Amino acid sequence: MSNALIGKVAVVTGGASGIGLASVEGMLAEGATVVIVDRDEAALNALQKQHGDNVVTLAADLLDPAACSALVPRILEKTKVIDIFHANAGLYVGGDLVDADNDAIDRMLNLNINVVIKNVRDVLPHMIERGVGDILITSSLAGHFPTPWEPVYASSKWAMNCFVQTVRRQVSPHGIRVGSVSPGPVITTLLSDWPAEKLAEAKAKGSLMEASDVADALIFMLTRPRHVTIRDVVMLPSQFDL
Ligand code: NAD
Q1: Which Pfam families match (predicted)?
Q2: pTM, entire model
């Protein structure tokens, strides 16, 4: 570890579990103060106890429009500054499209697309005013390859990859970096929603990643000097037939 994030304030949505939690741990190890946003209050309380003043925990269900709108102002009230915003919270809908129900589709598209776009919109004025900032988005390999076992989920991540490419061009003149990480299957609770036969196949092929692998990629991007920008990391699992 290089202590490269000492003095920085980072925000991680969906930071109480899985990839978000690994991102939190990676940034803490680099010396950042981390605002952990999640709907899981019990997990947040445990993280607050564990990390003390190095973290700020913020309970919010980002699918609640009022909570989503209040997020950035609530954070700035507590920390005054946001250097890094990692939009990570996401849901999964997999399997045959004909089996996907309205509520699951709406919630997933709302969290994976609308909430990310709104959170990034809300943090940008602060970063533009300061002339610096890093925005990271957890996308997915499913946003690069047409994965036929998850058309709804894959659509949300293709949308995110388009968002990353376009908003980056809009805000880079203001000194703001926008990057994404696109992992293949990672061992987290989200994976339990994968179609069972797909999960069995990935396990058999030994192609599952650890959340800490993803955090390593995020920290690598964040700790590059600003004139050597690594923008998007696509993490291809070995032995995965894509
Ligand atoms: P996870 O379920 O372990 O963690 C998701 C976290 O988000 C949880 O702590 C949960 O409480 C929180 N969350 C969910 N809905 C929320 C809401 N409405 N408001 C606030 N918090 C909410 O899942 P994960 O695998 O770590 O997923 C994180 C991101 O990684 C997602 O965007 C997902 O699409 C992406 N991703 C996951 C995989 C994988 O295989 N696990 C692969 C590629 C990308």
Answers
A1: adh_short
A2: 0.97
